[in-house]
Every structure is written in C-alpha cells, then in structure tokens.
Amino acid sequence: MRERTAQSRKTVTIVFCDMVGSTALSERLDAEALRHLMLRYYALLSDCLERHGGTVEKYIGDAVMAVFGIPALREDDALRAARAALDILAAVETFAEGARGAHGVPVAVRIGIHTGEVVTSGAADAGHALVSGEVVNVAARLEQHAPTGQILIGADTHRLIAQVAETVPVPPLTVKGKRDPVPAWRLLAAGPLEHGASRGPGVALVDRHDELAQLTLAFARVRRDRACHLVTLYGDPGVGKSRLARDFAAVAGDDGATVARTGCPPYGSEGSLAPLADLLRRLLGDAPAERLAELLGATGPDTAAATALARLAGTGRSGTSFDETCWALQRLCTALGGEHPLVLVIDDLQWAHEDLLAALDHIADWVQDAPVLLLGLARPELLEQRPSWGSGKLNATALVVPPLGGDDCRELVLRLSDRGRAGGDVLAHLAPPPLPGPAVDRLVSRSEGNPLFVEQIVEMVAEGADPDDVPLSVRAIIAARLDRLAPEERAVLEHAAVIGGEFTADDLAALAGPGARGAGPIVRDLARRRLLEPAGPGPAGEPRWRPAGQLIRDEVYTGMSKLLRAQGHERFAAHVERRGPDDHHTIGTHLEHASRLRAELDPGDPEVARTAESAAAHLGRAGTEALAHGDINWAGGLLRRALALTGDLPAALAVRTSLAEARLAAGHAEEAVAELRALLVEAERAGDGRTAARVRLQLGYLEPGTEGFGALLDAARAAVPVFTEADDALGLARAFLAMGQERQSRSRHREAAAHLERALRESVRAGAELERAGILGALAVSLWLGPEPVESALDSCRAFRGDHLAGRLVGRATVGCPMAVLLAMRGESDEARGLLDDALRTLTDLGHHFAVPAVTLFRAGVEELAGRWDEAERLLREAADGMERLGDPQLHATAVRDLARVLLARGAPADAVRALLDVLEHDGVTVMPAAACEVYGMRARLAAAGGDAAAADAHLTTALGAAAQTDSPACRATAELDRAHCALLLARRPEAGLAAREAERHFTAKGHLVGARRARALRDGLR
Predict the structure, then answer these.
(1) Of 130, 362, 408, 931, which residue is most buried, by most CB within 10 angstroms?
(2) What's the CATH superfamily of 8-190?
(3) How far is CA 452 from the centre of its chain?
(4) In sequence order, which residues have a C-beta less than 8 Å from that of residue 1008 and are 6 or more positions away?
(5) What mean pLDDT is reported for the chain?
(6) Is the pTM of this model over 0.90?
(7) For the chain, what is the largest distance between any 2 Cα atoms, rounded to a whole number of angstroms?
(8) Radius of gyration of the chain (CA)
(9) Which CATH number fits domain 196-400: 3.20.20.30, 3.40.50.720, 3.30.230.10, 3.40.50.300?
(10) Mind listing the pLDDT tens digit for each residue in 461-497?
(11) What is the side-by-side strand order in the sheet with 372-378?
C-alpha cells in the first residue's frame, strides 16, 4: 500500500538560521575569501545541527534550514532543536571573533524555531526528504523577526520545551501571510531532556501495589542472602516506571540502604559510561579520592581500581581498559554493600550504550557476599536492541509495569485536580476547576491508562483545551515510537488505522494489494509489542485484531498522506463490498472518508464527485435500514451524512424523505411536516412518482383535513400501483397500513384488520422492522377497540409478541400498549402498568420520542379503568400537551376527548367540559364515528344536567347513530351509558335501566369486566 519514499505527514521542528548583514560582508571581502568564510560558516552550523540530530534540508543563500524529526522522529525533537540553536549562537560568537580579527568584518545570526505538521517526500531514510507545510513559513517569519543574536520560538515549540527551557515572551508578531498575530518567545537557555531519575516528585503513586511489593521482596532477599540481584522494570514511556522506582527507593532508604539514581540521556553523552560516572559522584560525595581509599584501600591492586574510578567520576572516562573498569566497579559495589545494602537505579536503559549494559552485566555476575540491587528501568525496545538482556541469570528478574485501569486513572485525575486547586505542589499553577464527570470519563479514556498522558492532558484541559485533544508532548512520544518501526511494520499499522476497528488477515491483504507477503508474523510481533491487540475470533473463528489504543491508531492515521488514506479507504470499501453481505454503513463510511480527503487535496478532482455519490448511496441505504429497524437516532445521523454528500443529485430526494421520517419519529413534527410539503412539490416537479407517493401517505395521516382520513385513503389507493410496479415492499406495507388506519378511523376494526394483515406481509418481505412494529401495534389497537373478546385479543397480542416480535423491542412496546389496556379492562392494573413502564423505557432509550406521549395516553386509560381519576387527568393533560407539541392531530384529539370524559366523570364544571368539546368539534374530529359518539354523548349529558331535554335527545340520537356505524362494543356501550345518565338526569328511570342493561351487554360481550361492573352498578342504583 505504501513505499517508504511515499509522502507522509509528520510533526517536526524546523530551524531557520540566517546570517545578519551578509550583503555588507560580500561588499568588503574578496569573492574567494568570502567563499572560504561561508564554507566554514556552513560547516559550523551543520555540525551544531547534526550533533543534536537535525537534518540540514537546504541552504538558501546565507540561510540554513534544518529539520528535526527526519528521517526519524524523536520525542525530544523540539528540545534538540532548541539546544542546537543555542549551540549555534555560542559557536558563531567564537567564529565572529576570528572573522573580525582576520578580515575586520562582523558576523552574527538570528534564528527562528517552530513545530508543526509537514508533508515529507523523497528518500526519507537517506536523509534527503523534502518537507512542505505552514510550519516552514512560520519558522522563517520567526527568524526574520528575531533581533540579531537572538532566537525566537513558536507556540508549539514553547509548549514542548517549557519545562526545561528558560524563555521570555515577546509581543505577538504580525507576519506576512498570517491573518492572526503569531505568539513568540525568546529562547535564553535549554537543559537536557529529563530522564526519570531527574524529574520532580510529581503526583503520588496510584495503584502499583503489586509491583512495589515485588521490588520490596527482591530487596529483602538481597539483604537476607547478601547477594546481587538485577531487576529490570519494563513499561511504555510515561506509564510510571520512574514513580514506582522513586517510591521503592524511599522504602529501601528508610530500611537502611544506600540509594543512588541516574539515567541514560537519549544522545550527547560524555562517554559510554557517563551514567556510571554520575552514580559514582552521588555515592562518593565531595571527596571521591579519599572515599575510594577508605573503601578500597590505599595499597595493592585496589589502588589502581580507586584511581580508575576517581578518574571516571571526574571526567567520565576511567583511563584504563573496559575490563579493568568493570572489575573496579565490582570491587566498589562489594565494598559499599559491605557497609549498607546498596540500591542502584538506572533509568532509560533503552538509551544505554552497549558498554554500560555490559558493565551492569558484569556487576550482576561478579558481586558476591554483598547485598546489592541493580534496578534498571527501560522501555520495551531495550529487548529489541538487546534480546538477551537479563537472560541466562538466576539472579535477574523482569517486571512489566502495565497501564492503569479505569478506576485508578480516574483517581489520578482527581488527585491532580485536587492538587492543582490546593495550590501547594507540582501542578499548583494549574488551579483548574473541578472537572465534570463526563469530562473525567473522556479524559480517562483518552489517556489509555498512561499516568504521564493523564498529567499532560489534565494540564492541557486546565489551560482551556478540549479533553478530546491530544497534547503535542504525548503525540511526540507515540510518533517517535512508531517511527522506529520497519517499513513493512508501519504499513500493517497503516492498514489497521484505515480500517479503524477490528480486522482479519484477509482485510490486511485487501489493503496491501496483490503480491504482498502475508502479514500474520508481523501482526503477532506488533501485538507482542503492544501496538496491536487480539479482538477475539470472527464469525468463522478466524483471529481478529485491533489497534492497541486510539492514540496509536490516530497517530498512525494522521502520519499518512491524505492521498494514501483516501486510496486505503477506497480499497477497503471495495473489499467489504466484494465479501458481502452488503454492509452499507461500513462501505459508505470509508467512501465518505475517501471523498472528503480527496476534496481537501483537489476539489476539482472528478473522483471526488464519483466517490461522494457512491458514499451517499450506501449511507442512505444504511440510514433507511436503520430507520426500518427502529433505530431512530442512528438513522438520523446516517441520513444527514448521506445528504451532506448528495448535493443536488436526484438521490437527494429519497434521502431527504427518509430524514424527514426520522425527524418525525424523533419528535420534530413541525420541522418534518414542513420538509415533507417541500419534498412533495420537488418530487412532483422531478417526476419522482415513488417519492411523491411516499410523502403523500405521510401527509395524509398528519394533515387529514375536514373529511377525516379520506385523503389518506385516496393517497394509499393511488400509491399501490406505483409501489407494485417498482416492487417496493416497504411502500406497499405503508399503503396498506394507511388503508387500515382509515378503516380504524371509521371504527371498522375487522375491515381494518384485513388491510393490516396485508401490510404485515409486505413489511416482513421488506424487512422493515419499524413498519412491522407499527402494523402489529395497529392490529393490537383493533383487537382492543374492535369486537374481539378481551381474552382472545390478549392471546393474539401475546402471539404477536412471541411469534413476530421475539427480540424486537420496538414492536413489543407498540403491541404492549393496547395489551395493557386490555388487561386493565379485566382489572389487572398492576400487570398493565408494568407493560407500559417497559414500553416507555424501550421507546425512550431507542429515541422514539414521537411515541412517548402515546404511551402516556395509554397509561391514562389504565388509570381511568382503575378509578384513579386524579392520576388519569394529570396524564391526559401531559399527553395532550405532548401531542400538540409533536404535531399529531389524531392522538391529540383522542387525549382531549378522554380528558373531557374524565372531567365529566369527576363532576367538573360544565363549562370546562364544554370548552374541550368545542375544541374537538372545531378541529373536525366528529367526522369519525367513535369521536362523534363520544362528543355528542357528553354534550347530551351536559344538556340533560342543564334540564334541556330536547337538546339532550338530539345529541343522543347523533351519538347512538354514530356508534351504530362502528363494530366497537366499547363505543356502543359508552353511548348506552351516556343515554342511561341522561335518562336518569331527566327522571326517565325505566329508560335509564334499559340503557344501563344494554351497556352491560356490550361490555360483557367484549369481556370488559370493569365496564360491565360500572354499568351494573348504575343499573343497580336505579332499583
């Protein structure tokens, strides 16, 4: 997939150094003398830059540009650049004195340093890479604004070196080509990169109880056996090796041990044994010769050992052979161990010279009869450089310091935050406010268990950054680790980063292309080095892997050129499409990434539009499928992404329609209806019959007009041939559902069931889970309100939930609501409430906010049947408000109608009930027989209560006539109960008894025990 000479992206540090006054210099010197002077000048600069690890990219006249981070990134590139720049100033000062003496000419320089992302190309491994990017321009502008003899550094460079450098801020610079002023600092001094032994105390150790116990046990054995033991602590940078060693050293020191600590610098050492020289100075104090004589004696062979060690402590070199030096070190450790147990801690062994490792090996092998513990701290790459380290010894132990667990990470975040607010320790300057819980969780996840990363992210957040950002210092550590990989190893990680999640060997092969070697051994080696990790077996039992952390994945991904990423995404999308079955979300997501990356490179590239169109098609399919399965929130996100890619393509109409339906289901009715109206006009103009038919069905339900669902029925009948011709099973399911809903609005529930069963078959064929759930819910409503007895209706609902809806949460919820009212009709209110609680929880969790007020409406029905009138009223008012807010006129009318019924039953003032009935008549709901039965039945009772017998009789005639048009026993029984109440109010007791008996008969036929009991109570009260 990539060649090592291909373009890549890196965060590097650029140094620009320019000679001041070179024009005047050329005027005063002979051309040959000038050339000789400039060659010495260039050599001087190159030596300073390269000694610190920089690569001189080019000379521009008398200016030099160098890059730190090419060919290989190092975590301390910014610090190396700073130290190199300071060395240049010092070297040029000496050079200038010579030039002034020889030629009488002044020589001075100014320097700019900036850190940022570049694109590299060319033979990077040969050190001839070309870099380009904004960071180069900014570094040049910093150099141009630097006063003579000074160094200006940019913000990111300052952020990386601030802890070990002395800087002074300067006023922000207004530079050519930059809209905003550029922050800058003057660099005065820079120390070496700190190793663990020299870092401050930091925050207290979190967890690590097991590792500390193992070190303490090793020390106890050393004391008991009077022997030397080598312990190596392995762990990734920042994982807490140094903190652990510091705490152990404190324990050993309290237990009487002599403890000395040092570390190995990454470069620039004053000799291969310089860390041992540092240990000697710490152990021997201000008078090393005298102390050595005391320990080793002043005569005999030990005199030579003392002399060599004194020289090593003073100059870093022993002045004798390596073997003799090792023997002298062994003798000294034995002597010191004879006084007190000796603990020597050497940090960053991965940077140790081979001679230092050999010297430690010698000490471990030959110190006898003295308690000495050698504790080495190293990154895992030590074993890559020296696989045999510590092996073959009975007195050597290797311990691994793993990342912190989530709870321990959280504790560390809180400690850091508390310490900063207390103002008394290493992070006191932060003084951050307490982090909110979600921010802590994101920070814990982002740090991936690395304490150093936690500290640096907390510091970054305290300065106002987003917890999802990654500090440059953290990125530098990860990038340096990745840059040490071989090209084939980096390629595997790049393939994994493009895939983004779990992958198999076949996935890697698809990205590598034909002829590539199998990646299995490389994958296993990367997993051993904790860059990849097992993810469990795939569907066929094949091994699956994933990146070992999001930070690693992100750093690998951003290190790839955008073109390389785009090509990788396209290859993986094609691979997923080939292997089937269609995974539209994965295919669409990768094509979406590819399209955007190509657009960033060249918006005019024809591949951009082609890839975007394909991505939109797959994301649109994925969104439509998610909507059909009832995953509303997920569907909305996918459809919005698809729409962003479609532009003015014809496919945009279908995507917009699905998105409007998702918005409707999510509870954004007003917005959705406005979009549907606009879509209808556009679809008709474009001649898109299927989309137009689909939109008319939605609007026919949401905006029924004065004639009820007549328009919905017309839309459904017109849609059937359109959907049939297109073999659109989903469209047919919706059309037959609309027909069923129209019959339900007429309270003809057996006729409705016939249409709904056809709709159910089409929804199953389409795999449309949301429609299937809605259709089964509608069938359950007809079982509830229609002539089917309660017992058999409940059996049918249970069958729906078992046969059709096993594991389908939305469908079980929609059927559960009318099922709950059926249970309440039998007086089983507790079980009914449980069903509704489950339904509400399911619909809320899945984002079906449009359906939540409907559940409230069903809950009110259950409470009304249970005789809890106060609770029923409260719930009905809540449901009515919710339906009005969501724009569902049908269910809003139902809630208002039921509220009027509850108020009437509770004896509320007639005007309150009448006001609700006026609203219903004004909205035209009385064209529906069941609504007319309810409205005019209640008007009759109000008239009878007012003594207006004629009006009461007229309203009753209308109500009874409307009920007769339905097949609903409950509707007919309610009309008879209203007649009984009117007759009772008008002193027509015989008629009241007959009406109550008729109501009881209808309720009993339905199996509505609560209704029958109320009718019977009314009848019995007349005796």
Answers:
(1) 931
(2) Nucleotide cyclase, GGDEF domain (3.30.70.1230)
(3) 21
(4) 790, 825, 969, 970, 973
(5) 88
(6) no
(7) 136
(8) 41
(9) 3.40.50.300
(10) 777 777 677 888 888 888 888 888 899 999 999 999 9
(11) 258-263, 342-347, 372-378, 228-234, 396-400
